[in-house]
Write a structure and sequence with these properties.
Blueprint lengths: L1 H22 L5 H14 L10 H19 L2 H6 L1 H26 L5 H11 L4 H8 L6 H31 L4 H35 L5 H21 L4 H20 L7 H35 L5 H25 L18 H9 L5 H8 L14 H26 L4 H28 L6 H18 L13 H23 L5 H18 L5 H17 L13 H23 L7 H19 L4 H7 L2 H24 L5 H21 L1
Helix pairs in contact: 1-2, 1-12, 2-12, 3-10, 3-11, 3-12, 3-15, 5-6, 5-8, 5-13, 6-8, 6-16, 7-8, 8-9, 8-11, 9-10, 9-11, 10-11, 10-12, 12-16, 13-14, 13-16, 14-16, 15-16, 17-18, 17-25, 17-26, 18-25, 19-20, 19-22, 19-23, 20-22, 20-26, 22-23, 25-26
Amino acid sequence: MELFIAILILLALIGVSNVINRQIPFVPVPLIQIALGAAVTIIPSGIHLQLEPEVFFLLFIAPLLYNDGKHTPRSELWRLRAPIFLLAVGLVFTTVFLLGYAIHWMIPSIPLPVAFGLAAILSPTDAVAVSALAGRIQLPRSLMHLLEGEALMNDASGLVAFKFAVAAAVTGAFSLPKASVSFLIIAIGGLAVGAILASLVTGLRFMLRRSGLEDETMHMLIHILTPFALYITAEELGVSGILAAVAGGVMHAVERDRSYKAMPRTHEVSDNTWSVIIFILNGLVFVILGLQIPDVFSIIWISPDFNNFKVIFYALVIFLMLILLRFLWTFAFSKGGKIFGGTKNDKQLSFKMLAMTSLSGVRGAVTLAGAFSIPLFIDNGSPFPERSLVIFLATAVILLSLLSASILLPLLAKKDGGQDAELAKKERQGELKMMSAAIQAIHYATDESNEAEAAAAIADYNRWIRQSQPNGHKQSNIRLNKKEVDLRIEAIEIERLTTRKLLKKGEISKEQAALFLGSLEQLELILSRRTHLWYIVLKYIARELRAITSKDPARNATSKLSKPDRDVLKKIKLETSNAVIESFEKLRTSPNKRDVEVIINHYHMIKNRLSKPYSRGQAEFNGKEEVKRDLHWIAIQAERDEVQRLYERGEITRDIANELRRITRDREAYILEQE
């Protein structure tokens, strides 16, 4: 029961971390999750989970790297194969050799094999941490692809080097030729096992489909089990389970590309399910990392054998040496841009790009899990030398790498004029993709009974697509700035007061007033989502309490309104629009004159539309407008899903994703008010 409660708390912390990040977006989610995990262990009766490295690699690292293998562009991996090899293998072993000797020289109490082991476990960069940071920082595309490829491959080389270093520390024996041959067998064998098994799984799924077993839930179960099967099989065969998971992900992407055109909807369940799984696993990795930090640090703080200032100094020096070594290594192979797959005619990389490459080598959960896998005793029964200090130094370097990347990378990646244009281009591309996804969702939901409504909804989106183009005529009532949102909310309050006056005069019934006020509150909630979170929460709670205590008629009202009700609601909207225009006319001389005019024009447009008599054809269509409304909401959800998908694939940054979500909310408010 305690374990179940602990898991629930950890899952809740993931949600809390994203809520906090929404309020303080300049702090990366991983750092918030680490802080929350550490905070939970400090409180009385807090959670204390012992990190089991083998379980951690199987449960977290295998599926995460499998997913990264699926989404990393294969063409870029191949184009950057040489620089990826230089960083994932060459830099790893160079780091082990040079940093190992430096650590032993600086801290003589750490034997040379143990120093090599510490250097080895610090050498791999963390794919999860890199992806999390890239989501909020506009890193150059070439750098991002290089970091992704490096992070996919260097876990294996770092862990293999760590394995041999620890074995040398435990047994006192080491053979370089044997270690080199073993590394090749483990690496190549892991890639081969992953590719072969993934191909077999793909063939199995294809045979099941050919035999008529099209149950997407069953195929999703096979898909979920695949990375675990790849990892376990490879480890049992004595090769790299991590590289097997990566190779399996790449093979799955190949199979997906072949079948997508023939069966475009068969991957929807897979994409949506994996999106949830990866979100949870990513969060748990950093929360669990945070859970370990207080215990790791407390052992060093309270031990009389260690000087706290010295060990902090050691950690800082080791981190700086890692950065310097990465910088020099990148610089040495950057002539002609070759480190990014360039040609001989390319120019030397700038200092800024070299610095960004160096700082982007973030360490993460793989490093900590490897450090915790150090045995407690060596072969002669003695305690493993300086085990606690090694784990402390590894943890401190993880935190330093996350903090430095979070603080310095945004400064180095600061937008210039060219980047502004690139961001605007990506935003336009993202907006087109999410609206195309909305149109596709409407097509999927179309049948014989709603063809006319679907055609109208698609026509709306085609019009918005034209307006989103650089030369399009954008309407002010679709995209709103923050001041316009504030004024719209003020206008809604005027509409609300006007409606209550009409109710008090007896011109409308309680049910009609409740319906109209309910629509205003829904519109206000949509508009205010860009304001403070607590305003939304309190507003929603107040609305629900009022609905329960007063038996709000709007709560149980049907969406199919009678013609008299529609006429009354139309009359209310005309009255409230006049009240808003009259009130805002007095603000034309205010400093916000332009925004005030936008709101006035918006309500004039509503009045003009409501004042026009309906034709017979329009009246017949309005009888089914709830069908069009439902299609619009399906399209809005498709927009949100597409934005999340683009963000998870790394095609857009967090800032662009937030901007696209803002556009969707504005469209949602526009659709609600129009209908």
